[in-house]
Amino acid sequence: MPRSLALLKLGALLASGAALALAPLPAAAQDIAPVGEPLDAALKTGPLLPEEVLRSSALTFPSILEAFEREAAARADQLGADGAFDLMLKGEYYDRLTGFYSGGFGKAEARQPLRPYGAEVFGSYRVSSGDFPTYENYNYTNALGEVKVGALFSLLRNRDIDSRRFAIEDTRLAASQAQLDVLLVQLNVQHEALRAYWRWVAAGEEIRVFEELLEIAEARQIGLTREVNEGARARIALTENEQNLLRRRSLLEEAKRNFITASNSLGFYIRGSDRQMIVPTREMLPDLSRMREISPAEKLAALPLGEVIQSRPELQTFRLALERATNKVALRQNDLQPSLNASVELSRDFGQIGPGGPGFDSTDTVVGLTFSVPLQRRTARGALQRAEAELRETELRQRRIADQITTEVGNILANLSAALRLSDLADAEVKQANAMVQAERTRFRLGAGEFFLVNAREETAANAQISAIRAELAGRLAEASYNAATMNLDALGLE
């Protein structure tokens, strides 16, 4: 084969390799949130159930979607770090167009970095043509070219860890942290969505109580007006009831305002397929009598809280952070090591002996060592001391967060137990207040009671109902907080 033709073929090979390297890679599969179609129909017609709110927030709430994108970015960083060990193809073509010498050559080389010992293996093929000056005689090859293989090794610094291997492990841990961050965001969002839902339900129940209280006063106003016109009752009773009407209307307006606020807050977590917020209305309020009862505190306390707390994403994130910090310390300790690198390469020319002479017609085995060490190493020592300080800081923060979570779970259980007891007491108070109202109304109809006492009993009964609603709300909120703290994914609509 003529050498010029061999050079042309080698040039074509290099061109095809470059084209392959520049070709777009197939898109990698991404771990993203399963969005699916939100329940638009269920969200816009009543009753609105907590499961529907949790599903909507889990699928459409921006914070959760943002967390998934952060995880995707972390996975992309991991892929980029892996690229430090990509196979590298390198091509070189050199030729003289004019001049006394006509020498030229083509070369193709592949290098593959390896993780053990920071090693790198390589192989190359080179073929030359023409004559070279004496100061370029190393470019000569035999007629069929030269094949060379070799390897490089790190024996001290960069033997066990270097910036490339550190980056791969660090981005892997960062991606795991991003995945835990997704879970943490989901827990927080679902917790807040559930709290907003129960506040909305409680606000709707309070409106119902004040509407009933106002209706009683309005119905009584009609009767009193008739009795005053007939001369059977003094006008002062009508005036007193008008005063009660104004007060009860004020209470109802305040309750309506609170309901609107609660509806807007809940609408923040409900979105349709177009990602637009949906503000719930009174027609979507559920029937509380058909809602699931709150789990007893004793049943919840029976869970192995120690294991649950240790599996919290915050603590798992800290464990990964400690591992990252430990790896960073190891990297900085590596920087203090002297550099001792070894190399070995084997080369062989093939074919008819070229213009370079018989000296190129042999199998050459070459080994080498290089050594270097910084004498003061202040930069490396400063970086190591900083990494060690960051590791100690992370350990202390992990201990504080673990104690904080344990305390919060204990407080949640105490609040839930107290809320359930207060709810029972509030229900009993409602029964007693209603009995007093009925008794006072009977006395009033028989002429033995006073109009003032009837109004007072009715408002006391209404206040008892409001207290019962708020006690039920406190229990629901405490249960939601407990489910979030113990990662009850089923109760939070995440399974």
Summarize the SSE layout with pairings.
Blueprint: H1 3-22, H2 40-44, H3 50-60, H4 62-82, E1 88-94, E2 104-113, E3 120-129, E4 146-154, H5 163-229, H6 235-267, H7 297-301, H8 305-310, H9 313-335, E5 339-349, E6 363-372, H10 378-445, H11 451-485
Antiparallel strand pairs: 1-2, 2-3, 3-4, 4-5, 5-6
Helix pairs in contact: 3-5, 4-5, 5-6, 5-9, 5-11, 9-10, 10-11
Task: Please characterize this protein's 3D structure.
The protein is α+β, with helices and mostly antiparallel strands. It has a domain at 1-15 and 88-155 and 339-372. Helix content is 59%, strand content 12%. The protein has helices spanning 3-22, 40-44, 50-60, 62-82, 163-229, 235-267, 297-301, 305-310, 313-335, 378-445, 451-485, and strands spanning 88-94, 104-113, 120-129, 146-154, 339-349, 363-372. It has a six-stranded antiparallel beta sheet with strand order 1-2-3-4-5-6, covered by helices on one side. A hairpin with a 6-residue loop joins strand 2 and strand 3 (120-129). Helix 4 (62-82) packs antiparallel against helix 5 (163-229), helix 5 packs antiparallel against helix 9 and helix 5 runs antiparallel to helix 11 (451-485). The two termini are 68 Å apart.
